[in-house]
Amino acid sequence: MSRDLGLAPCGLVIERIEAATSGLVILARPTAKTADCPICGSPSARIHSTYRRSLADLPSHGRAVWIKLVTRRFRCVLTTCSRRIFAERLAATGAHPFARRTNCLEGIVHHLGLALGGRP
User: CA 112, CA 99: separation in Å to the nearest integer?
Assistant: First the structure.
C-alpha cells in the first residue's frame, strides 16, 4: 500500500505507518532514482546496497514517532573520484548525515537545553 501523503517530506514516499506500543513507526523510502556523489557531484544510478536508517521525530498525540528510512548506497561513476561508494543524502528529512533526529526535533531539544541552563 504505497501512498504519497501531503504530510511526507518532499522526496519521500510513506510505505506504511505502524502503531507500536511505544509509539508510531513510519516506514518511508526516497522517490529519486539517482543520487549525487558528495565529492565530485556526478549523479549515479548504480546502487551498491541498502540499509535502514532510523530518525526520531516530533511526538504525535503524546506518542513517540520514529521514521525508518530505506537508504541506498551508490557507486560513483567517475573513475577519478576518490569516493567509490557513498550513501544518498536525504535532505528531505531535514536531517544532517549521521543524524539520529530530524531538524525539527533537534531544534526543540537545542532550545530546551538552552532554556534549562545548558551551555552550547
Answer: 18
Q: Are strands 23-30 and 35-36 parallel, antiparallel or unpaired?
A: unpaired
**Cβ(71)–Cβ(51) under 8 Å?**
yes
57-66, pLDDT tens digit by residue?
A: 888 888 999 9
pLDDT tens digits, one per residue of 7-56: 556 678 888 999 988 899 999 888 889 999 989 989 999 999 999 988 88
The sign of the CA dihedral 87, 93, 94, 99 is negative
Q: Which helix (H) or strand (E) holds 58?
A: strand 47-60
User: Please, which residues bridge with residue 85 across strands?
Assistant: 75
